[in-house]
Structures are given as structure tokens and as C-alpha cells.
Amino acid sequence: MVDSPVSGRTLSRWFLRLLFGLAISMAVGLALVKVTVEHLAQRDARMWLAQVEFSIDHLDLGAERLTTLVHKAFIKSASYNTKTPLLIRARPYLTHRFIPVTLRIQTGAIDTIFMSGHCDNASRTLAYILGTSGLLSQQLNIVSPSSAHSVVLVETSDGRRLYLDPEKAVIPRADNRILSPEEARNAMRSGLQLGDIWQQLVTSASLDFYANFHFPEAIFAVQGEPLHIEADVILTEEKSLTLGESNGLSGDVSHAAAKARLTPYWDYIGSRYDRSWMRSLHFHQNTRIIIGLTAPPVQKFITSQRLPIIRGHELIYELDAGEVLRFEDGAAGYDWLRLRSYQDIDYIRFKVITKTSDRRAN
């Protein structure tokens, strides 16, 4: 006797049931992760608030103490943590706006548990702790031609805006109160010295970032708000410029870009820090740009307004004097397996095109 073949309709129903089951399982898993992480983060945040005896009535004192404690916690973590925890790596996805609110982990919760990372992690941690007290606290991103940083902006119901830097353990202070970023900038522009504005909270504090805080090119925006990062590429004497070496690493590209006053944020394509960013390079000569990646290009991470020539690991652009090469970070796709939306840049080479024969079709 021959068995009857399974109909296509039966297979389709089975497949749909499988997908539905997987979706339900994933939703339940995300919900469990959210509940667990936020419970632990809330517990830790209340502990920190209690430790400094935080009170809205004594906001400046409490904010200063919390900034100091978060700084010390991150310094301690850096001394023994060698690997990035999986939850820290997955944080951009577990907190992403595409995740339903009922399943999305609150911004800063994961950072508060692990107390590990750099200035943005420290800022999200402090913002989360202060947010637990009922204050509107957000990560503030600052970019200058030669450096970049993240701090915390606290906004009170009576209109005050407090600037707190947990990574460097620094606050701007005048008249016995913490200043806003705008007040700190204006104070520096009026001619006051660094030490007259920026208070170092501990011996490990650093003022290195704030020497250029008053520059007109220094810009800042709250995380998630548009930030237009623009730089001028001017090739005069050498008629060429190379950022980074062909070594499979992106860190030297960031350092070289900062040294060339192009901002440090040219070590990746796609979206790495904030999907609201727009990064632009302005060219003053006819220029060929070769962006070498550390791996073969992934099309969904190429967010430039014009398509490049792709040659192996390289993206090649040619622009005329006066043109702009613009990258829209928010247009980047997702690599869900690797938990990222970007690719590292290995090197960037700028070269002036002086002859018609030097030009290639783009």
C-alpha cells in the first residue's frame, strides 16, 4: 500500500504554525529578559541613590556625588573586565525602537548592571540612575573637529539643565550651581579659564576634552536627535592624505581623522553610534576617495548619497571641488547574526585629481 503524499496545503499550515510558535517563543524570551534586566537595574539604581542620600531638594549635591560614584565604578570595572558581555553587545538591538515597548529594555538598564565600557556607557548609566529618581536625564553627544565625547544632560521641571560628565568626573560649576552646556560654553567664550568653570571631582578626573569645548565647530545633541557632523577635506601641499594603515584595524583611522580635524567618526560605514547622525565630507579640490574596509563591503551598510565603485574591499568615490560626500547613518540595514549595523574602515585615502586622464567614471 502506498502512503498518500502530504499536500502542499498541509505543509504550508505546518510551516505557519512553526513560525507562529517561534514568534511566540521569541516574544516570551524577550519579555523574560526585559523583566529580569530591568528588575536588576532598578535595584542597583535605588542602591546608588540611597548611597548618596539623593534628594531633588539638594539636586546639585546629589548629582555631583552620583557622577563621582559612577566614574569610580567604571574605573574599577575597566581594571578587570577584558571581554564585552553579550548583553552589552546586544544592547542596541534589545533597546531598539523597532522592538515593541512592551518587550524593549529601557535605555541604560543594561549599562547600569554591568558598569562597563566607555563614555557613552557611563553616561547611559548615570542617566538611568537619575531617571529612576524621576528626573529627565539623557545622553548628550558632543563632537568637535579633533575629539568626541558623551555626557549626561539633566532637565528639571523648573527649566534648569545640568551638565554631568561621569566618564571624566567633571562638572561645570559657577555661583555654587551646576551649569548647562550652553552656560559652560558661553563662560569659556567670555575668557574664563578651564579651572574657573570645570570642576574635577576626583584625582582621576580629566579636563583634556574641554580645552576645545568653546570652539564654534563643537556641536552637541541629545542621543536620538539629529546631529550633522561635517568636515572639510582640504588637500593643499601634499595633494593626498591617508587615514590609517592597511592593518585590518579601525582605531588608527579614528585617531588619524581626529588629528586631521575631520572628527573621529570616520572609522565605520553604516550606523554605529546613533541612527540620527548625518556625516558629511566637503571637498575643495577634485578628489578621489578610497575607503578600504576590513571585510568585503555589505551593500546595506553603504549609506552614501551616491553609489561608489566597489573593488574588492574598497569603496571608490570621485567628487568635484565643491561637492559633498554624505553618509546617512539611519539608512543602514541590520546584521542580526553579528548584532551590528556597521562595518569597520581599515583606511581612507584622499587624492587630488589633477588631470582628466586621472579620472575614472564613478
List keywords for this structure.
362 residues; alpha+beta; 2 domains
Describe it.
The structure is a single chain. This protein is α+β, with helices and mostly antiparallel strands. It folds into two domains: 15-222, no CATH class; 227-358, no CATH class. The chain is built from eight helices and 16 strands. It has helices spanning 8-51, 59-80, 86-94, 109-114, 119-132, 181-189, 194-197, 251-259, and strands at residues 136-144, 147-155, 161-164, 170-174, 177-178, 198-200, 219-222, 227-233, 240-243, 268-271, 277-283, 287-293, 309-311, 314-319, 324-328, 341-352. Strands 9, 10, 12, 13, 14 and 16 form a six-stranded antiparallel sheet that branches. A four-stranded antiparallel sheet has the order 3-2-1-7. Strands 5-4-6 form a three-stranded antiparallel sheet. Helix 1 (8-51) crosses helix 5 (119-132). The model has no long low-confidence stretch (mean pLDDT 90).
